[in-house]
Specification:
Arc Repressor Mutant, subunit A, two-stranded antiparallel ribbon, alpha/beta, seven-stranded mixed sheet, 11 strands, about 300 residues, D-Maltodextrin-Binding Protein, domain 2, 10 helices
Length: about 300
């Protein structure tokens, strides 16, 4: 029986996620030669090539794709083993893999600063993705906890509300609609919009809301960054639909305007989520409890 080290499995999975040796090295905070060496040793133990170079990117071979599926399961089982033993010891320390949708990055870092002060022995590893990528992480059981808005319908998850998430339509101060009061929702029909990319939770919510009101916006630009969208709206490119948690400072300074539309802003919620079948470690349980018990009022102060 061939034996693979946990380090080799972790390295391979990061390379498979990034499809790049250099990006994997950056994510793991090691040198590129160190990652290459781990991959060579793993391929030597297996006796098969796991990837091949395609320009600056790499591509998994058929063997690599098979190995990835089994490696994900093996690493998840080892993590559950560690969590089970930590639970028996009753330790409030350890490592938590936390994934958040990109809109949550406006308040989560501040929460983690306070959490670390209260629980200095718990390490939180943070990943930021759009909703589609988060769903993939959940499906593969590669993450402990997730902070997201709309919870999955197709995955058996446990989700608990811990904060509000108001969503609204914004414009530049000079936009004609910025001066309207109690405008009907229909006024948004055929307006120019700058929107989040496909796969974003914000984009999905916007499309559902507009479909309910038979609104057909003109999508003039889409991009995966709330910050770039804000700058584009300020420059006068068009309107946008964003979480108000992301634009508090721009609204206060007058660089952006929240449109006065009937039925807006729409109130949604932030959830802390994990697979229903997942056995949370003591560290993950502590973080989950912290979010549920303390995060809501703190977010209201910050964002």
């Amino acid at each position: 029986m061939r034996r693979y080290t946990l380090r080799q499995l972790d390295t391979f999975l990061e390379v498979a996620r990034q499809l790049s040796i250099s990006l994997a090295a950056e994510k793991m905070h090691v040198t590129q030669p160190a990652v290459s060496m781990q991959m060579r040793q793993l391929e030597g133990a297996i006796g098969l090539p796991l990837y091949e170079q395609r320009g600056r990117k790499i591509q998994l071979t058929d063997a690599g794709q098979d190995f990835q599926q089994y490696a994900i399961g093996a690493v998840a089982q080892l993590k559950q083993l560690e969590d089970a033993m930590a639970e028996r010891r009753g330790l409030k320390k350890g490592r938590v893999e936390l994934a958040i949708v990109s809109t949550a990055k406006y308040f989560v870092p501040m929460l983690l600063v306070l959490f670390r002060k209260k629980f200095p022995d718990i390490e939180v590893v943070l990943q930021i993705h759009n909703r589609e990528s988060i769903m993939n992480l959940l499906t593969r059981n590669e993450i402990d906890l997730v902070i997201m808005g709309h919870t999955p319908d197709t995955i058996d998850c446990a989700a608990t509300v811990f904060a509000t998430n108001p969503m609204g339509i914004i414009s530049a101060p000079g936009h004609p609609l910025s001066r309207r009061r109690r405008a009907p929702f229909s006024i948004l029909h055929q307006q120019d919009f700058v929107v989040r990319e496909m796969g974003s939770g914000t984009r999905q919510l916007m499309e559902r809301l507009f479909a309910e009101h038979a609104i057909d916006p003109r999508i003039v630009m889409e991009m995966p960054s709330n910050e770039t969208i804000k700058q584009t709206v300020m420059a006068g490119m068009g309107l946008s639909f964003l979480s108000l948690r992301t634009i508090r400072h721009e609204l206060a300074s007058g660089h952006l305007v929240l449109l006065d539309i009937e039925g807006m802003p729409v109130m949604r919620h932030w959830h802390v989520t994990h697979l229903s079948s997942k056995r949370l470690s003591p560290a993950a349980s502590v973080l989950k409890d912290f979010l549920i018990e303390e995060a809501g009022p703190l977010i209201n102060l910050w964002a």
